[in-house]
Specification:
single chain, alpha/beta, 9 helices, 19% strand, Spore Coat Polysaccharide Biosynthesis Protein SpsA, Chain A
Length: 274
């Protein structure tokens, strides 16, 4: 797939029902690709047993699994940034923990990256070659948000919110110190900044099997995404906030509240059974 090391960053919030099996499936998939990799699960303040079940995977595959934990929920964007902050790979993959998007698709993203010279390849539900199985109302939201984002930013993408993205780590080291959005508008801010700075971004088709129902995207969240997206437009086009050079690698995620779980931590949990 690639000669460079790959870091897979997976944010998770209350995913205890499936997190152990999903993590095993991700590790097995990347084993089959024959590339050096690490999987970084960021437990974003889950109130269930996500953290405990994930820790079992450290004991099974300590050379591949890492866990970063927040005691309180900080937002998906913050979780992705925290994972990227400790990633060691030359490439960083953002992958949703629910596995609606299977990691077997990742080699195709790298093929597109190599063929086009792109710095980032973004999964797109609206790509003409995508195979998607998700509710009609979600399709309407996706299409509406795409039109809104295209009018504001003119990105060369049909979709910004799909939970499978591949980045060259150098792009993230340049972009993430400028990012302020910590929740659902995080994706669009990363991509708008990258496009502004001249990085090449392209999209890729995906196979999506939607399993969550309407999930956590309710009207309140939709409104917050709208407001946060306008704030990004203000910073980009009016205030020109992103034009200012920032300290590379000094991400704005609240990493002080995060703790990376060690192998000894996982062993201690296993011994005490909690």
């Amino acid at each position: 797939m690639t000669n460079g090391m790959v870091s897979v960053v997976m944010p998770a919030y209350n995913e205890s029902a499936f997190i152990a099996s999903n993590l095993r499936e991700v590790v097995e998939a990347f084993d089959s690709f024959g590339t050096d990799f690490e999987v970084i699960l960021v437990d974003d303040g889950s109130s269930d047993h996500t953290y405990l079940y994930a820790c079992a995977l450290i004991l099974e595959r300590p050379e591949r699994m890492r866990i970063v934990r927040y005691d309180q929920n900080q937002g998906k964007g913050n979780a992705l940034m925290a994972g990227a902050a400790c990633a060691r790979g030359e490439y960083v993959i953002f992958l949703d923990a629910d596995m609606d998007l299977h990691p077997s698709q990742i080699p195709g993203f790298f093929d597109i990256m190599a063929r086009t010279g792109a710095d980032a390849v973004i999964g797109s539900k609206l790509h003409p070659k995508s195979q998607v199985n998700y509710p009609g109302h979600r399709r309407i939201y996706s299409l509406g948000y795409y039109c809104f984002v295209w009018m504001l930013f003119g990105l060369p993408l049909r979709d910004t919110q799909t939970g499978m993205k591949v980045f060259k780590a150098a792009l993230l080291r340049d972009v993430l110190p400028r990012v302020l959005a910590k929740r659902f508008a995080f994706d669009i801010e990363v991509l708008a900044i990258a496009h502004k700075l001249g990085y090449k971004i392209t999209d890729a088709p995906v196979v999506l099997n939607f399993s969550r129902g309407f999930g956590r995207i309710d009207r309140r969240v939709v409104w917050q995404i709208f407001v946060d997206t306008l704030a990004i437009f203000y910073r980009l086009r009016i205030r020109h906030y992103y034009d200012v050079a920032h300290n590379p690698g000094l991400f704005t995620a609240d990493t002080r509240a995060a703790r990376e779980v060690t192998l000894e931590d996982a062993r201690a949990l296993a011994r005490h059974g909690n």
